[in-house]
Amino acid sequence: MKALGDSIRVAAAIAVAAVGLAACGGGSTPKARPVAARTTTTDVNAKVIADYRGYDELYRRVTAAPDPHNPTLDATLGEHMTGDELRQVHLYLLDRATRGLVLRGVSDLNPKVVSVQGNTAIVDDCIIDHGHQYDAKTGALRDDPGDTKHGFESTLLLEGGTWKVAKVVEKAGVCPA
Questions:
Q1: Does 142 map to a domain?
Q2: Under a CB-based contact definition with an 8 Å cutoff, are residues 175 and 149 in contact?
Q3: Residues 59, 101, 61: CA angle, nearest 5 degrees
Q4: Pairwise CA distance, residues 155 & 122, whole Å
Q5: For 13-78, what is the HEC assignment?
Q6: Predicted local distance difference test score (pLDDT) of residue 22
Q7: Is 43 exposed, middle or buried (0-12, 13-18, 19+ CB in 10 A)?
């Protein structure tokens, strides 16, 4: 019995000492401080370009079958667009649906980050557009055949961790002659 009593007293003494040391901050292993991830310009530019490409993929998808009355459209567009561009694309889709037009085809993007200042990025892009407008019912081509080249400047805003396109304007001199 004595051995059992001594064991209980030793265990109690160890427990009291452990609580005392923990309360004083001693006896425990120091915890490593989290180190902030370093963000390089290359990382930021890569994220801007990736999100810009996500915008283009979404734009191509929704213009291939414009449905401005889709109840999830605003949320879908809001994944990669904001502000003026969100409103413009919504109006564009309404126009295309009303006129019975769809866009089909792909574009070659050549985006370049011009600047990133805080939560605003500027991207210039020379787009070689292989896409065309078609009649949604008949499939007939409704614009001129052949590729077109357009220069654009896009303003992106960082919202919720995503660079969203807020404004797109045509810009001369973006595409080489």
A1: yes
A2: yes
A3: 20
A4: 5
A5: HHHHHHHHHHHHCCCCCCCCCCCCCCCCHHHHHHHHHHHHHHHHHHHHHHHHCCCCCCCCHHHHHC
A6: 38
A7: exposed
| pLDDT value at 121 more than 50 | yes
Residue 77: other Cβ atoms inside 10 A: 22
Check whether 141 has a pLDDT greater than 60.
yes
In this prediction, residue 4 has a pLDDT band, given cuts at 50, 70 and 90, of very low
Could you tell me which residue, 4 or 151, shows the higher pLDDT? 151
Residue 73 placed within a domain: yes
- Would you say residue 15 has pLDDT above 50? no
Total number of domains constituting the chain: 1
pLDDT score at 28: 43
Residue 167, classified by CB atoms within 10 Å of its CB into exposed (0-12), middle (13-18) or buried (19+), is middle
Rounded Cα distance, 131 and 35, in Å: 47
| Residue at 57 is within a domain | yes
Query: Which CATH number characterizes residue 60's domain?
Result: 3.10.450.240
5: in domain: no
